[in-house]
From TrEMBL:
InterPro entries in the cross-refs: TB2_DP1_HVA22
Protein name in the entry: Uncharacterized protein
Annotated keywords: Membrane, Transmembrane, Transmembrane helix
PANTHER family, per database record: HVA22-LIKE PROTEINS (PTHR12300), RECEPTOR EXPRESSION-ENHANCING PROTEIN (PTHR12300:SF161)
Species name: Diacronema lutheri (Unicellular marine alga)
Location of the protein in the cell: Membrane
Topology in membrane: Multi-pass membrane protein
Chain segments annotated as transmembrane: 47-67, 87-105, 148-167, 209-228, 235-255, 295-313, 320-338
Annotated family: Belongs to the DP1 family.
GO cellular component terms attached to this protein's record: membrane
Length: 561
């Protein structure tokens, strides 16, 4: 008890010392706060009532005035509905019920996540099928590599023959969807690949567009021959078999495990590069003097771009596109041939070069990872570095501020070119040509994306103008306008394809209400950095290890957007 009494006295003394109010003071403050809060709530409620009362009265007046008209309109609508035939009434009721059921089903599917589950199940099934297919190919390859390489194509050919023999009506019905398989589906897949920035998908669809361009070019050249259209119209067997063959060819190119795109592109690449010169080792043009000529050409291009400005750089970077100007004063038939050549042939040529540059850059990176050895600088390397420093000083004097990373990048490019050209015992391979041109993996990837953007924009424009093609054929100079449009889409310093692709992406982004990964707006930076658009054209053409000879301007052209 004494302890408790002492503790109570100590607590009272501590309360008095701290200054804690009494219970009556706390009670009075709480009562006043509650009264003030209740008065505030009543005041806000009165204000809300004063604001809502006029609106309520206006709504009541409008409803009372509109009610007779709504009642009469509803009665008239019911009489019109009841006056219909019972079949139409049943169809309308069924449509309404299906709409409600569809909405309920969509809510149920979204809540239960059936779509994501189905995608996951499809991925698992695809993985199992891929594993089984890989095992089958491995077992066939163990017996015969040739049979393993031919197995996907033989299996597809057997399946196509069985489908054509067992279901001819279904096959003919499917052949009507050739336009969807040849342009529609690849166009949507190309746009998805560009927006998602998937390298494998971009490479695949660029290969497909090269094949499509070559086939269209061959078709246009064949129809341009004398009496070709009349002979094609008179061939009765073509009307029955050509659509089926075209359907199976498109399926062979699109099916994932058929391997048609890769095989056809490998053969088409040989045809595209058939005009390239032979192996430079047979001509003996590679050596110190070839490297010196390349460095002098590079230095002259630098000085010319500094002195002449963007006009000289634009004319140089345009390359063979300037030859399209020769078709403008020609008649319409010849101008149409120029449209085919520069709208399909030349883009296919540059697309093959972009893929070759990408493959060479990958091989060069792999070789560097395996053999990290630095080349000893030679006299040509020192000459190239001195030439770059002199050109850089001149450019700094004339243009002012320059990016800090340009001298180092160009010096490394010149050093790589000189080191590659200083090896007379062997010819430059594909990855060394890319190194000489200063084209790394990122630049090659940008070049592939630029080619894909061109094909996407060109196909979109072709589809948009297809309904008006019969009307446009009656107008004069239509082929000349088409040729100018094709040239403007591909000129480096105009970048019409990139600009239109940016507009397409912005339109899709506004329609989707969000930003898709990998889809970035077009920012023209070509005139701001003219030095980064310079190319190094070696003395001759360079073969790649992965395929036939590829012209050096194709491999060396690394246009940076």
């Amino acid at each position: 008890m004494e302890h408790l009494r002492g503790a109570a006295q100590l607590a009272n003394a501590l309360v008095d010392e701290v200054g804690v109010a009494s219970a009556d003071a706390f009670r009075g403050a709480l009562v006043r706060a509650c009264a003030s809060t209740w008065a505030a709530v009543l005041s806000w409620g009165h204000l809300f009532w004063l604001c809502a009362l006029p609106a309520w009265r206006v709504a009541a007046l409008v409803a009372s005035a509109a009610w007779p008209h709504a009642r009469d309109g509803g009665a008239a609508a019911w009489r019109a509905f009841a006056a219909q035939e019972r079949a139409w009434i049943a169809a309308e009721l069924a449509a309404a019920a299906l709409t409600v059921l569809g909405w309920l089903l969509e809510r149920h599917i979204r809540r239960q996540r059936y779509v994501s589950r189905a995608r996951a199940a499809w991925r698992r099934l695809s993985a199992r099928a891929d594993a089984a297919y890989t095992t089958l190919l491995a077992s066939i390859r163990a017996k015969s590599r040739t049979l393993a390489a031919l197995f996907p194509h033989l299996a597809f050919a057997a399946a196509a023959a069985a489908l054509a023999a067992l279901a001819p009506s279904t096959t003919r019905a499917l052949s009507e969807a050739r336009a969807l398989l040849s342009v529609g589906f690849p166009l949507a897949a190309t746009l998805a690949a560009l927006r998602s920035a998937e390298p494998a998908a971009e490479d695949h669809w660029l290969r497909y567009w090269v094949l499509y361009a070559l086939l269209e070019l061959a078709k246009g050249a064949a129809l341009a021959l004398p009496l070709a259209r009349r002979a094609a119209a008179g061939a009765a067997w073509a009307a029955a078999w050509v659509p089926l063959l075209e359907l199976f060819a498109l399926l062979w190119l699109h099916l994932p495990r058929a391997g048609g795109t890769e095989l056809a592109f490998a053969r088409a690449r040989t045809l595209v590069c058939a005009a390239a010169p032979l192996d430079p080792r047979a001509r003996g043009e590679w050596g110190e003097w070839a490297g010196a000529r390349a460095l002098l050409a590079h230095g002259g291009a630098l000085i010319g771009a500094t002195v002449g400005g963007g006009v000289f750089a634009a004319a140089r970077d345009s390359g063979a596109m300037l030859l399209a100007l020769l078709f403008l004063p020609m008649p319409g038939a010849l101008t149409h041939g120029g449209c085919l050549l520069f709208g399909l042939g030349y883009p296919a040529f540059t697309s093959v070069g972009a893929l070759a540059a990408l493959e060479a850059a990958a091989e060069r990176a792999a070789r560097r990872a395996r053999e990290p050895a630095a080349a000893t600088p030679s006299a040509v390397v020192r000459v190239g570095e001195a030439l770059w420093r002199s050109a850089d000083k001149l450019r700094r004097r004339t243009s002012g501020a320059v990016r800090a990373d340009e001298p180092a990048a160009a010096s490394a490019s010149a050093a790589a070119a000189a080191a590659a050209a200083a090896t007379p015992a062997r010819a430059l391979q594909g990855e060394e040509a890319v190194a000489a041109a200063g084209v790394d993996g990122a630049a090659a990837r940008r070049l592939v994306r630029a080619r894909l953007q061109y094909w996407l924009v060109r196909m979109v424009l072709a589809l948009a103008l297809a309904p008006f093609r019969p009307l446009l054929e009656w107008l004069p100079l239509v082929e000349h306008g088409e040729l100018c449009a094709v040239v403007l889409l591909q000129l480096p310093y105009v970048d019409g394809a990139a600009r239109l692709y940016g507009l397409i992406v912005e339109a899709l982004r506004s329609a989707d209400g969000g930003v898709s990964p990998g889809a970035q707006p077009f920012t023209p930076s070509l005139h701001a950095q003219p030095a980064r658009r310079l190319q190094l054209h070696g003395a001759g053409d360079t073969p790649t290890e992965a395929g036939p000879a590829v012209p050096a301007p194709m491999v060396a052209r690394a246009a940076v957007e």
